[in-house]
Structure formats: structure tokens, C-alpha cells
Specification:
heterotrimer, A alpha/beta (325), B alpha/beta (265), C mainly alpha (298), A: 325 residues, alpha/beta, Rossmann fold, 10 helices, 29% helix, globular, C: 298 residues, MetI-like fold, 12 helices, 75% helix
Chain lengths: 325, 265, 298
């Protein structure tokens, strides 16, 4: 059994609002990633997934603070690491991020080759210009981009799909072991989305990327991308299992609701009335007793609002619901 | 008896700019929207579906071609208010759809501007309250409140409450569910279906979600780069698409029941 | 009927929102704002409250021309032998008045034109833009010279302020227009249109409220510009006929060769006052930008 390359253990992170409230955005998240694996994190806006990304990378920029827990990459803990060491040794090198709205994350005033060179130099890998350019060229060709044209261009000159490839290319220049992709395709149209996912698969197959954490609210996408899926709600994982298990046999009520709300264009699956649930996720600034989904759960029992729910093994996967069969 | 046509377009075009820099947001589209039908206009961002919606609403004017509403050219009536009494809209983002400087109740009341005969303040109040109850909001809940004080779900229902007040013949719904969380999506659809039944409305859905379109529509228009590349009932469009664009779209949309991207390993 | 009832209530709501205590507290936390507002209030009180505490008289000769500062006259006398401090306070009041009036006129005219053209777009916008550019080219100087030649009673402070206002509104018009253009495609404007609001209603209720902070900043800058314009005009001898103004003080210092005589008190304090007011207004404006524009807040 291969050792996990990335381990997160009971990670908790909070931030303080302008009014001094403590919002526990990530409340006890645990998972591990094996080499070559893609773990999908499914969650809707407000569930804490974006905070989770920052927390996993050790990026605690105020008002975000670490409450507790452990994060290990290749066995080495990044909790408590000072920001300089983190930036130099971990970020971009071991753990890379492809951010949401990546299309706007490229500095428009510099050419692509300069942005890429900056990336390499800032991690202490000095190299002369020629060698650097050759290396960039080789990598960009591998990504299926016309290297010379793209490297010498400014980001604004490139179409959206190409820009996204460039962003992925630069993020993965140093062959990171773990890539965290935070909604990398939500702003793209479906054809471009497919091309980007294809690119990510290729990078994994070529060993340029070790493993991937893929975060999105679009479950159908995770069905085809992830090996395992974790469903996140109100700062916690409510279900964690293989893709087949979570998509086709969900056990936790929220997961079931999510699955039930999907509308398929497939002719034989139409006409299924989608699940309708009132309400909204709880406000994490206030202390919550019992199950966080109890208020909206169609199968809630009286004890759900008082009993703190923990992850249990049900049907060979982790489920956070004491009434899951 | 043949169904009445609510909207009919022939060669409808809306372009911006001139000469080489001309952008055809809507290019030479032709269609018929029948009374009491639900039509979805499906396409990726930038395909022109929003501009088409604005043309139907008379918020934009056609550059060329014809667009008729209930048999008469859409621009023939100089009184815009009469058109807005018959054709209304709900927007995607409920927070940006309302003015943040005025209370939500006053903004709901302001839609009475559209009526020629102004009802008394008491009647206005009563009708607004009735519309709020129709979307399951107790009027006292929102009294004196500004948009930023309400939740996303409540604001979404404010958009729908407007429609209950105005009772138009046609509703243009611009991505009504894309900002709503998946579990609440069906609620919005339920309200819209309720509206359709009670008011016998014709609904035009603007969306990028073909699954949603297939679920609710009688007819789907697929738009791409300003043109309608395909139109027809959902069954035919998904089972036997005639346009390459549609075929590509159906192939590229990830669906849990279908093969999507074969992996080499 | 519904329209007027709605509008009266609407502006009441606007008023309540504008006087938001949180905003005030935020402003007070900005060192720029404290500096700028402090300086401005100091100057303002000098001008407004000065006469209440000091014995000021611009019409009496209290000594010889250009007497240096002494215990009884802290800043000496001017070329006519009048107490300098009295002159400065009177000049300050005039300059502030001109600045305020010119600023108000320029901002109002410019805002109305900018809002209307920016929202409407198309031909109306093009016409208004051409008109604005035409006005841009007309120097207030020429207008003032021409007008003063034709006006019997000579130039009053009010007339000067009005002329400055009517020739410097072009800047506000362009600034506000740009903002209006960015707002006209917003969803809430579309909703207002399908609610039956006409152009006037949309411009006043759905575009202007979003620009109030911007318009206020525009006003502050127009006010500063008005004060400077008046000073420049007065330096050219086109100042107010029968009032004292800071620019006029400078002009008289120049004409009467106060510089060569070494009578610094005849011009330096006036310069300091003008600089202080304008500087404080600019600083206030910068601090407001920091508070109103969240993107700058980091």
C-alpha cells in the first residue's frame, strides 16, 4: 500500500470578521492523497472550500488564522512553518494552486516568459536566460501551446482557453507533487472546460503533477474527474468515498439532496423531479449544536439538532449522519 | 385551433459599432414563440442570449429584421409601459437587480408605475402583501428592510414577487437559478411553474444549463455566436441534433450518466 | 400621484442611509482625512469666527503703509495702512464664498450634463460631449473680461463665482459621465426601466445615488479649483471691484511693489492661506477616495 503524499488531519481554520466575530470556516477536515490520485471536493458557495484551500497550503493571511490540526506533504509538516520558508520551498514547488478566476491572475504588464521565469527564480533555482527559455519552451510545447508565440506574448493578447493553459503551465513549472485546483473551469464554456481537464489529465499522466485536489460545485464534472469525492457542507466533510459510491449511492442526506438536484440532459433521465430543499447553510459565526444540516434535512429526527455528528464508516465510506443506513 | 404566436422574429439582428469593428450580438435570427409555451434559449456566455432577451423586453432595439409581439411590430407602440405590462423579467443576481438605496418594499411598490390607473395606497399595500405571501414571505419579515439585510433566497423571491404583482403575459427569466445553491434551485423552478399555471404565462428561459432547459421546456433554441443554430423540442434536440454546435455542446457537457473524457489509464 | 409619494419617501430613505455613523468613524480613522479636515476647519473658523473675536476693520487706516508686524497689528499693515489681519480675514471669507459658489455651480451643471449624456448615450451623448468640449476651450478669462466690460456695476464676488462656475463645469461633466456610462448597464437600472421609470427617474433614483460619494469628491475639487481660479483672476487685475479677496491682496502687493520693499506680510500670509485651503481640500479628497473606493483600501 503506497504511502499518502499529502495528509490533512483534523484541520481547523477560522477568521475574524470586522465585527469581531469568529467564523470557523473549516472545522475538522481530514483526508489524504495518494500519488496519482484525484480527490474531488464538492461544495457550494459558503461551505468553506476556498478557506480550505488556503489552509491546506499554509497560507494564513489575516484575517484567516489556523485553529488547529496538521497538514503534511511528503511526510513533512507545514504547520507552523514561517511564511518565507513556505513560499520558497512549498508553494509552487511541492504544492501548487490553480486559482478560481485564473484568467485574471496573470500580470498583464509582463510577458509570459517573464512571468514564468519569475516563478522559477523565486524558488531559488537560478539559471541563465537561455537555459531557462529552453526549459520553458520545452514545457509549453508539451502543453500543446505554440511556445515561441505564447512565451513572447502579453497575457491580454491570448484567448481565454490559451490563457488558462498558460496559468496551468506556470503553476506546474516546478513539477508540484500536489496541485490544488479551485474551481479552475467555472468561468469557461464547456468545450474549453473539456480541453483544460484533458490537459490536467495529461500532466498527471506525464508525472508533471503528482496528485490533485479538485474543488468545484459541479458534481457531474467530479464524476468524470475524481477518483474519490468528499462532500463539504458548513465547514465539514459530510461524506467521503469513491466516486461511484458518492455519485450513485449517496448515504448522507445532504449528498442525496445534491445528487437529487442535478438535472440531466440525457433523454431517459429527464422528467425526474429535482429535489427541493428550503433554507440556506448555517451562519458559521454562531455556535452550532447538533447536525449542521438538520434544519433543512428531509429525514431529520428530533435528536439531530442536539447530537454532535461525527464521521462514521457506513457502506465502506465515511458518512456524517447517525441515521445513515 | 392553431396556437397564437406571442413573438415572431424574422432575420432579427442587433449589431454594435460599424464597419470592420462591427459586432453582431444577435445575427439574423428567426423564430416563433407560441402562447403559453416554455422556451429555453441555451448557449455559452457571449452567444447573444442576453441581448436576445433584451430585444424581447424592448430594452434594446433591433438593428435590422423584424420582431413582432402579438402580431404587431414590437416598436409600433410608443408607450413602453404597455409593453412592460405584458412582458416582464427576472434577473440572475437578485442583489444587483435591486437598488441598494431604497427599502425592498418601496421598490416592490414602485412597479405600480406601470399601471394607468393608480390604485390607492391601501390597495397597493394589500397587493404587495399578497404577492409576498405567494412566495412564502411574511410581509412583516421585510418591512423597512434594505436589500443588503435580506438573504439571497429571500431576494430571489422578491424578484418573483414582482411578477406576482404585475401578472404579465410573458416572463423572460435570465439565468434565474445560476446563483442559487443546488438544493434551492428546484424551489425557484416550482415558483416559476406556479406562476405559469396561475397566470397562464409564456416563459422564455435564458440559460447555459441544458439539463435545466430539457427539464422545463416545450422548445429549446441553441444559440452560438449570435445565431440560433438549432431549435425544437428537447427530445429531438438532444436525441437527434442537426447542428454541429449542438452535437459538440451535448458531448462536452459533463453528465453523470454519459461517457465524457476517455482516460488513457 | 404615486410618483410624487414615492419620490418623497425615497429621498427620505436616501437621507437616512447617507448619514451612516460607520462611515464617519471610518473617515476619522484615516490620517489623511483628519489632517485635511483639520486644516480646512481651522482655516474656515479663522474666516468665519475671526470677526467675532477680533476687532477687524478693512476701511480704517490704522497706520502708515506697510508697517511691519507689531504687538497691536500682528501682521502689520498693507499699502493703504489697513490692518493686515483684517484684510486677510475678509479676503479669506470672499475666497471661500467664491470657491463654494463656483464649486456648487460647476458641480451641479457638470453633474446634470454628465448624468444625462452618460445614461442616454447615442446622439444626445455625442451632442453633449461636443458641447462640453467647446466649453472646455473657452477660457473663463476672456468671458470675464468681456462681461466686466459690459457690466455697469463692475465685478462682484457673486458674478465672478458664477462665471468661474459656468466655465469650469466641463471637468465634472466628463468625470460624472464616465461613471454614468459604467452604471447604465447595471441590472437594477434595467429593472427600473421595466418598472416604467423614465429617464429622469432613472438618472435621479438609480444612477445618482450610486454616485453621491463621487459627486461629493468632484465638488471638493471644483471648490479648490474655484478658489485658485479666483486668485488667478484677481492677480490679473480682474478681481472683485468692491470686495477684498486673497487674490486681490496678492495683486495689490505686486502692484505696490511689496516684494522689493521687503514687506513679506503683504503677500506671504495670503499665499499661505490659499495654499492651505487648496491643499487641505485635496487631502480630504484623497482620504475620501480611500474610504469610498474599496479597491484602494489595502
Amino acid at each position: 500500500m503506497t504511502r499518502p503524499i499529502f495528509e490533512v488531519d483534523n484541520l481547523r481554520a477560522h477568521y475574524l470578521t470586522r465585527f469581531g466575530q469568529k467564523v470557523q470556516a473549516v472545522d475538522g477536515v481530514s483526508f489524504s492523497l495518494k500519488p496519482g490520485e484525484i480527490l474531488g471536493i464538492a461544495g457550494e458557495s459558503g461551505c468553506g472550500k476556498t478557506t480550505l484551500v488556503s489552509a491546506c497550503m499554509g497560507l494564513y493571511i489575516p484575517p484567516l488564522q489556523l485553529s488547529g490540526g496538521e497538514v503534511r506533504i511528503e511526510g513533512k509538516s507545514i504547520i507552523g512553518m514561517d511564511i518565507e520558508t513556505n513560499r520558497r520551498d512549498i508553494l509552487g514547488k511541492k504544492i501548487a494552486m490553480i486559482p478560481q478566476g485564473a484568467l485574471n491572475s496573470l500580470n498583464p504588464t509582463r510577458r509570459v516568459k517573464d512571468l514564468a521565469s519569475d516563478m522559477i527564480r523565486s524558488h531559488g533555482e537560478a539559471a541563465d536566460k537561455k537555459a531557462l527559455y529552453a526549459r520553458l519552451r520545452e514545457r509549453f510545447e508539451k502543453l500543446g501551446l505554440p511556445a515561441d508565440q505564447v512565451l513572447n506574448a502579453y497575457p491580454v493578447e491570448l484567448p481565454a482557453g490559451m490563457k488558462q493553459r498558460v496559468v496551468i503551465g506556470i503553476s506546474t513549472l516546478l513539477d508540484p507533487r500536489v496541485v490544488i485546483a479551485d474551481e479552475p473551469t467555472s468561468a469557461l464554456d464547456v468545450s474549453t472546460q473539456k480541453a483544460v481537464i484533458k490537459l490536467l489529465f495529461e500532466l498527471m499522466d506525464q508525472g508533471i503533477i503528482g496528485s490533485m485536489l479538485f474543488i468545484t460545485h459541479e458534481l457531474p464534472l467530479l464524476r468524470h474527474v475524481a477518483n474519490r469525492i468528499a462532500v463539504m457542507y458548513a465547514g465539514e466533510f459530510v461524506e467521503l468515498g469513491t466516486t461511484e459510491q458518492v455519485i450513485f449511492d449517496p448515504r448522507q442526506p445532504y449528498t442525496r439532496a445534491l445528487m437529487g438536484s442535478m438535472l440531466s440532459a440525457e433523454p431517459r433521465h429527464r422528467g425526474q423531479k429535482p429535489v427541493a430543499i428550503e433554507g440556506a447553510p448555517p451562519n458559521l459565526a454562531h455556535p452550532i449544536f447538533g447536525c449542521r444540516f438538520a434544519e433543512r434535512c428531509p429525514t431529520a429526527q428530533p435528536s439531530c439538532s442536539t447530537n454532535r455528528q461525527t464521521l462514521r464508516i457506513v457502506a465502506e465510506r465515511q458518512v456524517r449522519c447517525e441515521y445513515a443506513s | 385551433m392553431p396556437a397564437e404566436a406571442k413573438f415572431e422574429a424574422r432575420g432579427l439582428t442587433r449589431s454594435y459599432g460599424h464597419g470592420k469593428r462591427r459586432l453582431d450580438a444577435v445575427k439574423n435570427v428567426s423564430f416563433t414563440i407560441f402562447d403559453k409555451d416554455i422556451v429555453s434559449v441555451v448557449g455559452q456566455s457571449g452567444c447573444g442570449k442576453t441581448v436576445l432577451a433584451k430585444l424581447l423586453l424592448r430594452l434594446e432595439t433591433p438593428t435590422s429584421g423584424s420582431l413582432t409581439f402579438k402580431g404587431k411590430p414590437i416598436a409600433s407602440d410608443p408607450d413602453l409601459r404597455r409593453h412592460f405590462r405584458s412582458v416582464q423579467a427576472v434577473f440572475q443576481d437578485p442583489f444587483s437587480a435591486f437598488n441598494q438605496f431604497f427599502t425592498i418594499k418601496s421598490q416592490l411598490k414602485s412597479c405600480f408605475k406601470l399601471f394607468e390607473r393608480q390604485p390607492s395606497p391601501a390597495e397597493i399595500e394589500a397587493r404587495v402583501d399578497a404577492a409576498l405571501r405567494a412566495v412564502n414571505i411574511e410581509p412583516k419579515e421585510i418591512d423597512g428592510k434594505y436589500p443588503f439585510e435580506l438573504s439571497g433566497g429571500q431576494m430571489q423571491r422578491m424578484l418573483l414577487a414582482r411578477i406576482f404583482i404585475l401578472r404579465p403575459e410573458v416572463l423572460i427569466a435570465d439565468e434565474p437559478t445560476s446563483m442559487v445553491d443546488a438544493c434551492s434551485r428546484a424551489n425557484i423552478l416550482d415558483y416559476l411553474m406556479k406562476l405559469k399555471r396561475e397566470l397562464e404565462m409564456t416563459i422564455v428561459f435564458i440559460t447555459h444549463d441544458i439539463g435545466l432547459a430539457c427539464y422545463v421546456s416545450d422548445s429549446i433554441f441553441i444559440m452560438h455566436q449570435g445565431e440560433i443554430v438549432e431549435q425544437g423540442p428537447p427530445d429531438r434536440v438532444t436525441r437527434a441534433p442537426s447542428s454541429l454546435v449542438t452535437r459538440q455542446l451535448l458531448e462536452d457537457i459533463p453528465d453523470i450518466h454519459k461517457e465524457w473524457l476517455p482516460r488513457s489509464r | 400621484m404615486c410618483w410624487s409619494a414615492f419620490s418623497i419617501r425615497a429621498f427620505g430613505q436616501l437621507g437616512r442611509r447617507a448619514i451612516d455613523m460607520k462611515l464617519l468613524k471610518q473617515l476619522l480613522r484615516s490620517p489623511f482625512f483628519v489632517l485635511g479636515a483639520g486644516l480646512f476647519l481651522l482655516t474656515l473658523s479663522f474666516g468665519l469666527l475671526g470677526p467675532l473675536f477680533m476687532n477687524l476693520d478693512v476701511n480704517t487706516r490704522v497706520g502708515l503703509a506697510y508697517m511691519p508686524p507689531s504687538a497691536s497689528h500682528w501682521l502689520g499693515t498693507d499699502h493703504m495702512g489697513v490692518d493686515m489681519i483684517s484684510m486677510l480675514v475678509a479676503g479669506l471669507r470672499s475666497s471661500l464664498y467664491v470657491g463654494f459658489l463656483a464649486g456648487t455651480v460647476a458641480t451641479s451643471v457638470g453633474t446634470l450634463i454628465g448624468l444625462y449624456g452618460g445614461y442616454k448615450g447615442g446622439l444626445i451623448d455625442d451632442v453633449l460631449t461636443v458641447g462640453t468640449n467647446l466649453f472646455l476651450v473657452i477660457p473663463s478669462l476672456i468671458v470675464l473680461i468681456l462681461l466686466s466690460a459690459s457690466v455697469e456695476n463692475g465685478r462682484s464676488l457673486t458674478l465672478i463665482a458664477l462665471i468661474i462656475g459656468c466655465t469650469t463645469w466641463t471637468w465634472s461633466a466628463r468625470a460624472v459621465r464616465a461613471q454614468a456610462v459604467s452604471l447604465r448597464n447595471r441590472d437594477h437600472v434595467a429593472l427600473a426601466r421595466i418598472n416604467g421609470f423614465g429617464t429622469l427617474g432613472i438618472v435621479f433614483f438609480h444612477i445618482m445615488p450610486y454616485l453621491l460619494s463621487y459627486i461629493f469628491m468632484v465638488f471638493i475639487l471644483q471648490m479648490a479649483a474655484g478658489i485658485l481660479s479666483e486668485a488667478s483672476l484677481s492677480m490679473l487685475g480682474l478681481g472683485p471691484y468692491d470686495s477684498v479677496s486673497l487674490g486681490k491682496i496678492l495683486n495689490e502687493a505686486k502692484t505696490n511693489e511689496a516684494l522689493t520693499d521687503g514687506a513679506w506680510w503683504a503677500f506671504a500670509p495670503a499665499m499661505v492661506l490659499i495654499t492651505t485651503i487648496v491643499f487641505s481640500l485635496y487631502v480630504i479628497n484623497t482620504s475620501l477616495e480611500g474610504v469610498f473606493n474599496p479597491r484602494l483600501r489595502k
